[in-house]
Amino acid sequence: MANQALNPAGNNYTSIVAFDGACIIISVICICLRFYVRHWIVGRVGWDDWLLLAAVILFVISSAMDAASWLILEYIGFDNGGGLSYQVSAISQFPYLWVEVLVRAAYAVFYLRVVPAELDLKLHRRMILITFWLYAVYQGTNSFITLFQCGNPANLARQDAVCLSQSVRGILFDVSYAIDALVDWIMTIVPVYIVYKSVMNTRTKMSIYFILSLGCVAGILALAVIPVSKLGGVSVVNPLNLSVPIIADILATCETLVAILCLTLAALKPVVRQWLDDGTKLRSTAANDVRFVSESAMGESIRAGSYAV
């Protein structure tokens, strides 16, 4: 039960702290499972795996800091801990934004592997590269603006500090979530179009469509954060009912977790096939047969000349 003296509005801080903890556990399980599949079954660890590992490390840091910011409010209260809570929350946005960049980088590497470099698909590859780098520049800039919005990050805890206005920060993050969705959809649609134009059987196409479409799921959640955050105003220093900001925080964290989950699911076909075969396949056979479905299907169908321009 919430302490009425420290939490007069009865905010449910336990829900967001528990959710952050669950996200940390799930993300660690995901990266361990992905590396197990890629190293021990496929026998090949790629750049997208290392990028996802870096993203998960930063995600764990960001989620832990986010949980700490809410715990400060729960056990210290607004009057004594509001400034410190906001400081921790604002600083946690720095690793969070770089998690977003690294996750999209992993997606980009995966999608570029889907679009063969040796075929006349330079325009498609450039679209993915340009989209990612524009996204990375914006998010990188946004991360430093957030960290230094009051000059020295130590000033974030001061009530009298001169900082970037909340309306400007809100716009920066609204744009951030909007381009999250846009980048996800662009980097998904380009490979999907190539698969659609290729001459391969419908079953293979549907399998590839499913894996590629996972990239859009996180983008949908990113868009959902914008209207929810507008309803309550995400500001932990405002001594009002924070139920809506807590929901917005959960959605924002969930958006990143879903992106990590989708990248993990894209790598699980080998382990699923191994389980179905009761572990009877040799590792060498698995490595030859169960690489990413998009790589194997398109690598053999498209490179064999079955891509119809």
UniProtKB/TrEMBL annotation:
It comes from the Eukaryota. One of its GO terms (cellular component) is membrane. Keywords: Membrane, Transmembrane, Transmembrane helix. InterPro entries: Rhodopsin_dom_fungi, SAT4-like. It holds the Pfam family Fung_rhodopsin. Its main location: membrane. Signal peptide: none annotated. The chain crosses the membrane at residues 16-37, 49-73, 93-115, 127-148, 175-196, 208-226, 246-268. It is a multi-pass membrane protein. Residues 33-273 form the Rhodopsin domain. It is found in: Membrane. PANTHER family: INTEGRAL MEMBRANE PROTEIN, PTH11-LIKE INTEGRAL MEMBRANE PROTEIN (AFU_ORTHOLOGUE AFUA_5G11245). Belongs to the SAT4 family. This is Rhodopsin domain-containing protein.
